[in-house]
Design goal:
334 residues; alpha+beta; seven-stranded antiparallel beta sheet; 5 helices; 17 strands
Length: 334
């Protein structure tokens, strides 16, 4: 900032050897000092010219804008969580746990990797496979000729809730189901195998079944399981990428890929019930039943259920739309 007083050097107290007072005149640039014994300098207020005022205004605006920018860019994000927690505690609303935010961030990172990767199936498998379990059913049955025998079956399931709820097909666990009690038969057992924990199976209980739509819900004890992200089967389009993940042939986490071949395919069950299913050419093999059909974003859009096995047919598999399955398993859990 400029100051006209820079040239005013000790102007109030300029004394010569005779103690005579000299004063500064506004005409200093045009004339020398002049002598006066009685002159007393009056203090005058120096004002700012127009240029200085404009400069001050511009500098103030820049400084103020910079402070506001820094506050929004760095300070606000740092204090926001504290304010949110405070107001949430006043309102009594639930505060999202750090685990939830971490998982959301993980899902976002997977989506980014899927979009960047030349082989999206690789990243889809990494995202979804931890949520796909193997199911083993063991039941003892009486045989007229050979007495009591052990009947076994295998399939897949999808973890749908972190507290151990698992979605699967009814026909996967039907051998162990007692319709009179809506529970597991006394002579049967259902075991659930988590990826990379095949040596430590969980004993499952039956929460409920809907044999007409081939849906069943199991429950294992525990918490913190990685639940699959469910998509919207109503917006699926023919030609989209489709990835099937399941326990094919007893091999955990088997992955096959194809496309969505058709929608709203009508299939009739032995009981006469008609299914509206998603058709895919992703290979669905024995053991895949109850596993996930996944889209390009790693979201579950169907429950693998049926494969056409007949001479002259190849690559025709079907999955129950996840929107249909969701409505049923939510009712069964309730």
């Amino acid at each position: 900032m400029f100051n006209d007083n820079n040239n005013d050097f000790n102007k109030d107290n300029l004394n010569d050897s005779s103690n005579r007072n000299y004063s500064y005149s506004s005409s200093f640039q045009k004339s020398p000092f002049y002598y006066s014994e009685s002159y007393k300098k009056k203090k005058t207020k120096k004002g700012y010219n127009l240029f200085q005022l404009i400069l001050i205004a511009v500098m103030s605006s820049i400084l103020g804008g910079g402070i506001v920018f820094l506050a929004f860019q760095f300070i606000a994000p740092a204090v926001q969580p504290g304010f949110d927690n405070y107001f949430n505690s006043i309102r009594g609303t639930n505060i999202s746990s750090s685990n939830t935010s971490n998982k959301e961030q993980e899902l976002k990172s997977y989506k980014i990797e899927i979009e960047k990767s030349n082989s999206p199936v690789t990243w889809i498998a990494k995202k979804v496979s931890p949520s796909i379990v193997g199911i083993k059913v063991t039941a003892r049955v009486q045989n007229f000729f050979f007495g009591e025998q052990e009947d076994k079956g295998e399939g897949s399931g999808i973890i749908i809730r972190e507290d151990g709820y698992i979605l699967t097909n009814y026909h996967v666990i039907s051998k162990a189901y007692d319709s009179t009690t809506n529970k597991i038969s006394s002579n049967a057992k259902i075991e659930v195998f988590l990826p990379e924990q095949e040596e430590k199976p969980y004993t499952a209980e039956i929460i409920g079944v809907d044999w007409r739509t081939d849906i069943a819900v199991l429950k294992i004890k525990g918490s913190g399981f990685q639940a699959a992200e469910l998509g919207d089967s109503d917006i699926v389009e023919v030609g989209e990428l489709a990835v099937a993940i399941g326990n094919a042939g007893g091999y955990m986490g088997s992955v096959t890929a194809g496309v969505i071949s058709g929608l709203n395919r009508t299939i009739q069950s032995d009981s006469g019930y008609e299914f509206k299913l998603i058709q895919t050419d992703a290979a669905i093999n024995p053991g895949n039943s109850g596993g996930a059909l996944v889209n390009s974003e790693g979201k579950v859009i169907g429950v693998n259920s049926i494969k056409v096995v007949a001479q002259g047919f190849e690559g025709i598999g079907f999955a129950i739309p996840i929107n249909t399955a969701r409505e049923i398993f939510e009712n069964l859990i309730e």
